[in-house]
Structure formats: structure tokens, C-alpha cells
């Protein structure tokens, strides 16, 4: 249930609604944005009777929220959310951001070289895993904390913001300290204790879609984060398990308009993990832009043949540069 207040409602009237919700044993969640205050009712095991609120001063509407996800839903918040990432960099509602870099941080020299190249091409955020969730325990697992320190150095030297994955609660604490955006990977999309911990962090969260997740499961994962108080959630479509062998995953671009309908949160697309091979990345990236994505997450490596992970899907810097030019022509507004 969403209680919508009159635009002239006083602080006392708003407080009275909050107090009534709490007295019923539920949680009151003010919803930011818009010209009027709205208050969401959460943790109610059964539907709430609208009549309990409709005769209170300052209340103009009580809207039942029919979806299982509440805070992420468009029913709760009508306007697209704009998330401030850090400084003046925003994403959502037409503010388009490109995040690019290697799959994994391999060394300071590697990270800085790639960061300078992607920055020159127009990326504002540097990606690079310090903790890598790998299918095989024998594959490269990342540099861990020293990788995070390299990311901090990249930020300092280039001014790029950083996004990197947290794979468990321990790494989450460190990622939240060193990086600008916490990435939750596809394999952890339903790691509910990790989602809750990300919801208590003070940094925005990039939530990848699980490789078998329905749209509803994905939005419920975002709800876990928001329910803990972190409203800065960016959804990231990265493809689901498909049947073809021509690509690593099946990029589901239908999620862009479908998410827009269901949720106010920004959605970005990762064509690299969807494709698994670099020749497919630029066309998928362009398609994502055309379908209305709020940003892209792209793997780039200056020496992909020597990359310790995901070299085959990493773009050469020249390819990335060309792709950015193409995006510019697709988006007359350019990007941040
Ligand atoms: C990644 O971005 O490096 C990654 C491991 O992605 P995903 O979780 O989508 O597989
Ligand atoms: Mn990767």
C-alpha cells in the first residue's frame, strides 16, 4: 500500500501517518521524489484496509501495490530514478554512462594502461574484478585486496570512478571501502545475505541478473537491497543461459522495456558476458543503446590474448573507441 499525501500536507500530518503505520506493527517507508510525499507500507502480512488512512488529514490516496516487489516498483514511484554515483556523475532518466575495463585487475600497469585508454574513448567508470567468481577453482581468482588498492590508484590517477564485484560478506566490506560501486554478480543474485549486506552499504550497487533469473526474481533481489535502506540500485542485464553455442549467453534485451514498465530503477547492459566473444559485442551494445539502456558495462583489454580471464570477449581499445563513436551517433545527447 502506498499512502499519497497532499502536496500541501504538513510535517505533522505526514508524521501522523507514519505513526499510524508503525502502531499497526508495519514499516513506514517515505518514497523520495515527486512534488508530493508518498509513504510506502512494508512488512504487512495481509493487505491493509485503505479506509484506515483515507480519512486522515493530508492524505489524498491509498494505492494498493499489487506486485510482490514494492520499493523497486513503478507503482510505488512513478518517475525514473536518477542515481548519483559520485560527484556530478548520474545515471538514469536519459543520463547514460559507460563502464569499461578488463574482466580482472591483473596488475597496476595493466589496470592503469586500460583505464587511460577507456577514459580517452569516453568511459567514466572503470570496471575490473579484484575478487573473481570463477567456474573452476583452478582458474584465476583475482588479486583480492591488493586489486582493490590498484583500483583506488586508478581512480586517483585518472579520475574515473570504479566498479568491482563483491563475492561474499568479507569482500563486500572491502569493496564498499575502496570502490565507488559494488557489483553483485550473476552467480550471487540470489545470495540473500549478501544482498542484505549490500543494502546496508553506503555505496550504489550494480545488480547483475542471474543467469536463470526471471524478471520477477531479479526485481525481488533488488528489493532485498532497497529494503535494507540502500536506494541506489542499478540493474544490469548480462544474458541468460540460452541454447545456442554461438554465444556464451542469450542477451535478453526485452528486459529493458519490461523493467521500465515495472520499475523506476536504471538498467544497464553488459554485452560482453552475454556474447563471450568480441565480434558480437559491438552489435549487441548498439542494440542495447537502441532499446533504451541507461548505460553499458564492457570488457576491454589492451592485450586480450594475454588476459588472465575473459580475453576472448574483451574488446581491443581501438574497437572500443569505434563503438563509443557509434554510440555517440545513436544518442544525440552523447553520454556522461
Ligand atoms: C563480471 O562482470 O566480471 C562477471 C563475472 O559477470 P557476471 O556475474 O555477469 O558473470
Ligand atoms: Mn568477465
Automatic annotation (TrEMBL):
Q: Where is the signal peptide?
A: none
Q: Supply one GO molecular-function term.
A: 3-deoxy-7-phosphoheptulonate synthase activity
Q: Name one GO biological process term.
A: aromatic amino acid family biosynthetic process
Bilayer-crossing regions = none
Does this UniProt record's set of keywords contain Transmembrane? no
Record InterPro entries: Aldolase_TIM, Class-I_DAHP_synthase, DAHP1/KDSA, DAHP_snth_FXD, DAHP_syn_2
Q: Which keywords does this Swiss-Prot/TrEMBL entry list?
A: Transferase
Chain ranges of the DAHP synthetase I/KDSA domain? 82-325
Name-wise, this protein is 3-deoxy-7-phosphoheptulonate synthase
Gene (name only): aroF
Amino acid at each position: 500500500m502506498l499512502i499519497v499525501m497532499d502536496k500541501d500536507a504538513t510535517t505533522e500530518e505526514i508524521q501522523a501517518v507514519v505513526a499510524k503505520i508503525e502502531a499497526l506493527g508495519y514499516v513506514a517507508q517515505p518514497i523520495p521524489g515527486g512534488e508530493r510525499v508518498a509513504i510506502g507500507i512494508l512488512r504487512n502480512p495481509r493487505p491493509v484496509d485503505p479506509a484506515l488512512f483515507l480519512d486522515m488529514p493530508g492524505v489524498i490516496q491509498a494505492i494498493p501495490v499489487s506486485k510482490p516487489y514494492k520499493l523497486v516498483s513503478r507503482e510505488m514511484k512513478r518517475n525514473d530514478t536518477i542515481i548519483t554515483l559520485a560527484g556530478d556523475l548520474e545515471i538514469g532518466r536519459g543520463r547514460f554512462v559507460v563502464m569499461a575495463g578488463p574482466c580482472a585487475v591483473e596488475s597496476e600497469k595493466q589496470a592503469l594502461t586500460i583505464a587511460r585508454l577507456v577514459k580517452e574513448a569516453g568511459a567514466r567508470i572503470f570496471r575490473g574484478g579484484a575478487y573473481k567468481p570463477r567456474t573452476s577453482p583452478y582458474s584465476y581468482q583475482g588479486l583480492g585486496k591488493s586489486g582493490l588498492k590498484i583500483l583506488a590508484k586508478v581512480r586517483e590517477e585518472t579520475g574515473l570512478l570504479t566498479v568491482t564485484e563483491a563475492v561474499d560478506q568479507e569482500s563486500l566490506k572491502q569493496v564498499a571501502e575502496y570502490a565507488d560501486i559494488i557489483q553483485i554478480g550473476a552467480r550471487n543474485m540470489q545470495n540473500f545475505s549478501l544482498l542484505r549486506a549490500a543494502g546496508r552499504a553506503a555505496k550504489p550497487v550494480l545488480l547483475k541478473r542471474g543467469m536463470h533469473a526471471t524478471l520477477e526474481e531479479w526485481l525481488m533481489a533488488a528489493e532485498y537491497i532497497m529494503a535494507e535502506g540502500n536506494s541506489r540500485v542499478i540493474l544490469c542485464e548480462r544474458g541468460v543461459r540460452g541454447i545456442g553455442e554461438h554465444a556464451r549467453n542469450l542477451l535478453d534485451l526485452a528486459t529493458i522495456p519490461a523493467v521500465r514498465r515495472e520499475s523506476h530503477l536504471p538498467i544497464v547492459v553488459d554485452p560482453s558476458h552475454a556474447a563471450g566473444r568480441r565480434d558480437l559485442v559491438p552489435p549487441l551494445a548498439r542494440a542495447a543503446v537502441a532499446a533504451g539502456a541507461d548505460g553499458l558495462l564492457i570488457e576491454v583489454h589492451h592485450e586480450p590474448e594475454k588476459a588472465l580471464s575473459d580475453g576472448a570477449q574483451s574488446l581491443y581499445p581501438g574497437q572500443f573507441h569505434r563503438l563509443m563513436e557509434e554510440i555517440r551517433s545513436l544518442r544525440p545527447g552523447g553520454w556522461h
